[in-house]
Amino acid sequence: MMYLSNNKILITGGSSGIGLELAIQLLKRNNNVLICGRNLQRLQAAKQQNPRLEIFQCDLAIPEDCDRLVYWIQENHSDLNVLINNAAIVHTSSFLEDQFALEKAQLEFQVNFLAPLRLIKKLASTLHQHITPTIINITTGLVYAPRADYSYYNATKAALHSFTQVLRIQLKKRNFRIIEVLMPAVNTPWHKGNPPKIAISTEKAVAMMLKEVSAGKTEIKVGKVKLLHFISRISPGFALKKINSLHKA
User: Fold this and answer.
1) Per-residue pLDDT averaged across 166-191, rounded?
2) Residue 195, Cβ neighbours under 10 Å: how many?
3) Count of H helices and E strands in the chain?
4) How many CA atoms does the CB half-sphere of 197 hold within 13 Å?
5) Are 151 and 108 in contact (CB under 8 A)?
6) Alpha helices in 97-222 (DSSP H)
7) Torsion over CA of 14, 16, 22 and 24, rounded to 10 degrees?
8) Fewest Cβ atoms nearer than 10 Å: which of 80, 104, 153, 183?
9) Which CATH architecture has domain 8-246?
10) CA distance 50 to 38
């Protein structure tokens, strides 16, 4: 079981959407919640609404910015014991038709996959100094059935899904808790005002996630991700077709 109180928590991508809702809900039971993000105005707005938040502006696509974040933690928040890798970006374009396809793919892999690895590697010793060191990686049900207009996002999250499973095995004999949360479609600014009909609210998604975390689950399938996982196992083709028809709604 993971206790959701009296922790010091870092949430990447914490200025909006799921990250911000996580910060808000976790602030109810924790005095120290840190968030980082690229947009300083959004970070400041989040702090204005929630004064107890600590904010740090950085771009996780840039390795040097990851290093700045790690240094800030080590110098000012060395009692950090929970890392939540939530930050992610997406591009919707056709791979062969987009002249900047490779640049976009590289950017997504930097933010969605390599940044979590960097932060885990460089903050592991800090986390491990404390009781219940915890790493939570936010992925998606799309690891089971990819959305066709997300040329790279599905692959980045599938990579993080696989890495999380490996990390859990490697750290089995140590004190770390390694948790993965596979999110469904959630109504956030991610969808730019046009969320799919199946999207759930951030409040509901985060509440469901935290309930499962509190119960000690280590691989958490939120909402209809459980159904998608089941369908993908018995009929992968149908799951793929269903996911892509739903997102056209």
Assistant:
1) 91
2) 17
3) 9, 7
4) 6
5) no
6) 101-109, 115-128, 153-170, 202-214
7) 100
8) 104
9) 3-Layer(aba) Sandwich (3.40)
10) 18
Give the pair of three-digit tokens for residue 27.
């602030």
pLDDT digits (tens, 9 = 90+) for 142-153: 999 999 999 999
Q: What is the pLDDT of residues 60-116, one digit of tens each?
A: 999 999 999 999 999 999 999 999 999 999 999 899 999 999 999 999 999 999 999
Bridge partners (DSSP) listed for residue 15: none
Q: Which tokens belong to 211?
A: 């309930």
Count CB atoms within 10 A of the CB of residue 139.
Answer: 26
Give Cα separations from 61 to 3, 87, 135, 181 (angstroms): 31, 10, 20, 22
Q: Give the span between the Cα atoms of 69 and 23, in whole angstroms.
A: 18
pTM: 0.95
From 144, 150, 152, 153, the catalytic residue = 153
* Of residues 35, 32, 136, 131, the one with CA closest to residue 84: 136
Q: What is the pLDDT, as a whole number, of residue 193? A: 65
Mean pLDDT computed over every residue of the chain: 94
**DSSP 8-class letter at 149:** T
249 pLDDT above the threshold of 50: no
Q: Answer yes or no: are the C-beta atoms of 56 and 33 closer than 8 Å.
A: no
Asked about 71 being catalytic, the answer comes back as no
